[in-house]
Amino acid sequence: MLVSADLVFGLQWGDEGKGKAVDYISPNYDVIARFNGGDNAGHTVVHQGQTYKFHQIPSGVLHGCLGIIGSGVVLNPESLEQELTQLNGTPKLIISKRAHLILPSYKLLDQHLESLKNGKVGTTGRGIGPAYGFKALRFGIRVGDLFEEDLLTKLNDAKKLVENLGVEWQEPDIEHWRSILEPFVGDDYRTLHECLLEGKHILFEAAQGVLLDLDFGTYPFVTSSPTFTDGIHVGSGFNGKDLDDIIGVTKAYTTRVGNGAFPSELDGEMADFIRKQGAEFGTTTGRPRRVGWLDLVALKYACKISGCNKIFLTKVDVLSGLSDVGLVTAYESNGKRYDEWFDFDETALKQVRPVVEWVSGWDSPTHDGSPDKNLISFMDKIENTVGAKIQWISFGPGDEETMRMI
Ligand code: IMP
Ligand code: MG
């Protein structure tokens, strides 16, 4: 039987336009599965003229796909409830009984941990780090626990730890949480394997991006979960060997929210221009995003480590109108030149000098034309550097503002 399971993930520091990419390709799939992160993620999707903001529900449910929230996700039932109200009717959705819950006190804990830190991470404040922390410490509460007899004992243990960490305990509204989650609780592993046997097409949708990965990102300025191919198995029980296309999403430039090194960062007028043209303000927190040129050193690393074979290039329209567009092709540090990422720690990375190459600016593509030759040179430069093919380019939020390259 033909196996088909693909992955869409971010090649940068999140916000690459994964929501748009998934929405565009999801009509080809029967099942869309999330395997990491929680409501720190924000996917904005414009579907049939209407704007949706998803934090936890896989956006493919808009096309009638089966959505799966895998074991590796940390779930906030109340924000799930809000997302559900955007949809007409109840979506086809399965939430893993192994997914951990974000308890109300975890948000306070997020703030508390930031206040202890010299060099704040700049988290989204959603309690994500504490949820993964409690999970690893074996004090976590899982979705399935809501329906078990020993729930109160487990909650009491969590309460003791929260209070020991110096934070106020806030009681979760268990009855309400049960009523939100009950229709959806299931087993991600079993469902995915059954779907595979039935020949269904599965798409995994990652949250955040390679450079925010807990292990392979710019630690400690990262999120608390695995954010690319590395997370699928632990986050859903699906075997990575059954994966087909590994589709990385990158903007034609770079953005970052939160703190940490950012070698290609811009400031001044150019940064303001890109931020304004690209509406670069966080979906989850509304914070202005830091912006910079596309960093090919970082992109090459992200492609290599993830096994990316296809690229979905987004927001090429944002740079149209510029006479020249920069691309960071190497870093210089202590008189040496590096075009491979990042055997640097955070401190060293903050000190590198980016080497910028320039390509001539382009006119934004239209859906019935072919890309301008300057945009083609920009894309050639990317493909030749990172060794993956740009399969789609996106030049606006709508489905029709997307071009598939042959
Ligand atoms: P946390 O995931 O809320 O703990 O935040 C850790 C870091 O990841 C911070 O720099 C956040 O700004 C960043 N982050 C988390 N989720 C996203 C996202 O969906 N897009 C972009 N950055 C994110
Ligand atoms: Mg986002």
CATH architecture of the domain at 250-404: Alpha-Beta Complex
Question: How big a fraction of the residues is strand?
Answer: 15-25%
What is the average per-residue confidence, as pLDDT, rounded to a whole number?
94
Strand order of the largest sheet: 9-7-5-2-10-1-11-14-18-19
Shape by Cα distribution: globular
CATH C-level category of the domain at 250-404: Alpha Beta
Gyration radius from CA atoms, angstroms: 21 Å
Distance between the termini: 26 Å
Instruction: Name the CATH superfamily classification of the domain at 250-404.
Output: Adenylosuccinate Synthetase, subunit A, domain 3
The distinct ligands, each listed once, are: inosinic acid, magnesium ion
Largest sheet: 10 strands, mixed
Provide the low-confidence segments as ranges.
none
Work out the helicity level: 25-40%
Structural category: alpha/beta
- Count of separate DSSP helical elements: 12
Query: What is the fold named in CATH at topology level of the domain at 250-404?
Result: Adenylosuccinate Synthetase, Chain A, domain 3
The number of distinct β-strands equals 19
Structure write-up:
With 406 residues, the protein is α/β, with parallel strands linked by helices. Among the domains are: 100-180, Adenylosuccinate Synthetase, subunit A, domain 2, CATH 1.10.300.10; 250-404, Adenylosuccinate Synthetase, Chain A, domain 3, CATH 3.90.170.10. It is built from 12 helices and 19 strands. It has helices spanning 18-25, 77-85, 105-116, 128-137, 151-164, 174-181, 188-197, 229-236, 268-277, 296-306, 346-351, 373-386, and strands at 5-10, 31-34, 43-47, 50-54, 66-69, 74-75, 93-96, 100-101, 185-186, 202-209, 246-251, 253-256, 290-295, 310-314, 324-333, 336-338, 353-360, 389-394, 402-404. The strands form 4 sheets. It has a 10-stranded mixed beta sheet with strand order 9-7-5-2-10-1-11-14-18-19, sandwiched between helices. Strands 12, 13, 15, 16 and 17 form a 5-stranded mixed beta sheet that branches. Helix 3 (105-116) crosses helix 4 (128-137). It starts with a strand and ends with a strand. Bound molecules: inosinic acid and magnesium ion.
